[in-house]
Design a protein that fits this description.
alpha/beta; Nitrilase/N-carbamoyl-D-aminoacid amidohydrolase; six-stranded mixed β-sheet; 14 strands
Amino acid sequence: MKHVVAAIQMNCELGNKEGNLQKAQTLIAQALEQQATLIVLPELFNTGYRVEEQDWQYAETIPGETTEFLQRMATQHEVTIIGCILERGEIGGTIFDTAFVIAKNGILGKYRKTHLWDQENLRFNRGDALAVIHQEDLKIGLQICYEIGFPEGARILTLQGANVLIYPSAFGEQRYYIWDTASKARAIENGCYVIAANRSGIEKQSTQFGGKSRIIDPQGKVLVEAVQEDECIVATIDLQRVIQQRREVPYLRDLNKAIFHPSE
């Protein structure tokens, strides 16, 4: 029940898919050297975040160019890779901010961001579903960036069985206090691991990303945190500790669901 997991922190060049994918590949290789079998990339890692004037140009289908690029690595090295890109919707002209899970045998699932930050409401459509994605004994709950401040999504995913919560992010430095507290809180209140892979660098001379990607245990302890602009951080997680923590602090057992879902 132990897994070596990695979070990738990286600065991206706006609109340079080829360059960003090559950088991601280099950082993934570092994770592989450390025997990681689950690797998480930041939000919109392949295009950069502030491409709002060209969202449609850079958006892809899933499967598509970026997922196929990652699929080759996942298959070759028998690992699981989680990324997040601009996705073209089924209805022409619609775009979603979408995370996905890729394993050696293909795309296991995807999640479209349901809570949009500020101007994202003008760029993207909202997703409307939460689901836990199973990869052997890992039960992966996907959220994206801003959603780290919404406990509801994390709790729903946990009640659906998630034992690790994943946050591909492009979280701003200005609100580090939220990133720091909320990431630990999501781990503690759900008794699970949190892997939060954040962007670094600055875009359009105004948007400064906060970095500090981190892997957090079920007690809210930061096992490892990134300190460099481009960095791969790695930790070993033990899913037995999820069970132990949920028995020692039984928030999930004691949750009074009737209050939140009263009978009509």
